[in-house]
Amino acid sequence: MRYPYLLFDADDTLFDFSQASARAFSIMCRAHDIPDTPEIRQLYREINEVLWTAFDQGEVTKEFVTLERYVRFLRALGLERDPAQCNRDYLTALGQVVFPLPHAEEVCRTLAERGHRLYIVTNAVASVQRSRLRNCPFGHLFAGAFISEEAGASKPSRAYYDYVRTQLHAITAENTLVIGDSLSTDIQGANNAGLPCCWFNPKGKPRPTGLRIDYEIRDLRRLLDIV
């Protein structure tokens, strides 16, 4: 066993966030009598992406993002709705829908059976992520989840992984592997923390320069040959 400790990103590494978000968005729209059309979904996605990019760059807080996206969304539509309630309803729904990515469950079960210790490392909203892990059919396989708002820092900052190390004293650069899809948060975060990393790249995006990528996989099953 090369890497007994495995730190998995959640969204778009193990779980299909786009599908879950679309379902939660539809539930929120129905609750608030908001039209649910492709154009309106695209408007929401664009607003959401701009704000999360600002969060990843350390420009705004997560609390600001989750509320402000609905402030801007409703303003763009000219609708009089309570943005805070829209946000709460969306997050509640998001915590209840889980769509594992292909092979995620079988890979995690195999890794756990082999004796690996599995953990989640995520910038997601804590209440949502913990709810999703409870609703996930293989959530019990994870020994813990390190969520940015509880850590007081976010990926890719070194401070986030310093927090993880205070909770997992045994992890080292020799026994731990970070697995994630995001170059800007997962891979950059592992680089900042001095930890080996595996880039989950199912779409075959070009490999960037300036980042250390120790492993690259397009299918989660390939992880079984690495660790």
Helix content: 40-55%
- CATH fold description of the largest domain: Rossmann fold
- Please summarize the sheet with the most strands: 6 strands, parallel
**Tally of DSSP β-strands:** 6
Summarize the helix and strand pattern as letters: EHHHHHEHEHHEHEEH
Which spans of ≥5 residues are poorly predicted at pLDDT below 50? none
Structural class: alpha/beta
Global morphology: globular
CATH-level-2 architecture of the largest domain: 3-Layer(aba) Sandwich
Radius of gyration: 18 Å
Strand content: 5-15%
Which CATH C-level class of the largest domain is it?
Alpha Beta
Give the helix tally. 10
Termini separation comes to 6 Å
- Which sequence of strands runs across the widest sheet? 3-2-1-4-5-6
The overall pLDDT average reads 96
- CATH homologous superfamily of the largest domain? HAD superfamily/HAD-like
Number of domains: 2
Write the layout of secondary structure elements.
Elements: E1 5-8, H1 17-32, H2 38-56, H3 62-77, H4 83-96, H5 104-113, E2 117-122, H6 126-135, E3 142-147, H7 148-151, H8 158-167, E4 176-180, H9 183-193, E5 197-200, E6 215-217, H10 223-226
Report on this model:
This protein is α/β, with parallel strands linked by helices. The chain has 2 domains: about 5-15 and about 100-225, Rossmann fold (3-Layer(aba) Sandwich), CATH 3.40.50.1000; about 15-95, Putative phosphatase, domain 2 (DNA polymerase, domain 1). Helices cover about 50% and strands about 10% of the residues. It has 10 helices and 6 strands. The chain has helices spanning about 15-30, 40-55, 60-75, 85-95, 105-115, 125-135, 150, 160-165, 185-195, 225; strands at about 5-10, 115-120, 140-145, 175-180, 195-200, 215. A 6-stranded parallel β-sheet has the order 3-2-1-4-5-6, with helices on both faces. The radius of gyration is 18 Å and the shape is globular. The model has no long low-confidence stretch (mean pLDDT about 95).
